[in-house]
Amino acid sequence: DNSQSKSDKKDALVIADMVKNGYYSEVRYTSESFEKLRVLMSNRDVVVKRLVSTINQLNRWVDIVFPELRQVFKDIKGKGAIATLRLFPTPTELETMQPHDVITGWKSIMKRQPGLKKAMLLLQVARRSVGTRQALDEYKFHLNQLLEEYDLAVTQLVRVEKQVTEALNKIPFAMKLLTIKGISEISLAGILGEAGDLSNFSHGNSLLRHAGLHLAEASSGKWKGQIVISKRGRSRLRRFLFLATMSLVVNNPEFKALHTHNVKVKKMKKMKSIMKLVGKLARIFVGISRRNESYCADKLKLLSPIAA
Fold first, then answer.
1. Domain boundary among 168, 186, 204
2. Any idea what the CATH number is for the domain that residue 89 is in?
3. What is the pLDDT of residue 230?
4. Residue 191's closest CA among 234, 227, 237, 223?
5. 266 class by beta-carbon count within 10 Å (0-12 exposed, 13-18 middle, 19+ buried)
6. For 55-87, how does the pLDDT look when each residue is reduced to its tens digit (9 = 90+)?
7. Do 259 and 190 belong together in one domain?
8. Structural domain contains residue 227
9. What is the pTM of this model?
10. What is the structure's pLDDT at 30?
11. Alpha helices (H) along the chain
């Protein structure tokens, strides 16, 4: 009926009607090697999220207790900044110290440590710090916990990425895909983990549809909406395809030339050009996997209007 009421019986009838008319897609079963990549990359996402959260909390801690530390170390997660936070985190501890004391402390936990100028600058900014001087013991306790979380996340990230590399090496065509300049092991592992065996796809467009990167139009009667990306597919596969394409545009000469031609000659918007190159990358990946051949930059150059 056309009433606005909704019930479980109506839902079941709608689903049955869609299946009868063929509006469904079959589940893609993947082999164990690709399932391993998917599990490992999912684990890596969780670890990276925790690491980013811890770094943000460290930045907040520095803003409150020792904001002048950024005048000495621009990156709080750098080795020098982390070593300083471990040894003498608050400005009050540095007020009575000499430069050689700071350098000695750095040498105790760093192989390559900052020099005398950094130490003198650190003591100088510590003496005129505007950071809080209340509840310092509690702030130091909080910092120790944050550093423990940071160390754990970094260690786990190294371990999971090592496992990803080992799993990737067991896939035959993965090494051929890695010969493409600009494709990293992490981005390729993310794509293969979400998509499975690329040789099972009939065309690159099938991979795009699996990721939800195919085009869709919203229209009703005489009204026609914009043609947009459907986003009905694997969201993590979309993310890794996009990040891989961005890396190729920066590091790969062929993709960089295509992107430049799209923007300057065809007058495309940069994001539209990127999304067009995502489709090209999908077709290249599926083609290499199906034919089990190596990447040939000359073929891509022949397709480029600039090379022609």
1. 168
2. 1.10.287.4070
3. 80
4. 237
5. exposed
6. 999 999 999 999 999 999 999 999 999 999 999
7. yes
8. no
9. 0.82
10. 78
11. 8-20, 32-65, 79-87, 91-94, 99-109, 116-127, 136-169, 174-177, 185-195, 204-211, 235-251, 253-264, 270-291, 297-303
Half-sphere exposure of 109 (CA within 13 A, CB side): 13
Asked whether residue 268 is assigned to any structural domain, the reply reads yes
For the residues of 133-171, what is the DSSP string, one character each?
A: -SSHHHHHHHHHHHHHHHHHHHHHHHHHHHHHHHHHHTS
**Residue 239 belongs to domain spanning:** 172-217+233-303
In a domain, 2, yes or no: no
Residues 133 and 246 in one domain: no
Q: Find out whether 44 and 160 touch, Cβ atoms under 8 Å.
A: yes
Based on the structure, what is the number of domains in the chain?
2
Return the structure tokens found at 234: 């694997």
**What is the residue-averaged pLDDT of the chain?**
89
pLDDT, residue 294, reads: 85
220 has which bridge partners?
223
> Position 257: which residue type?
A
Asked whether residue 1 is assigned to any structural domain, the reply reads: no
Per the DSSP assignment, residues forming a β-bridge with 228 are 216
> Could you tell me the two tokens for 163?
């496992």
Residues 46 and 99 placed together within one structural domain of the fold = yes
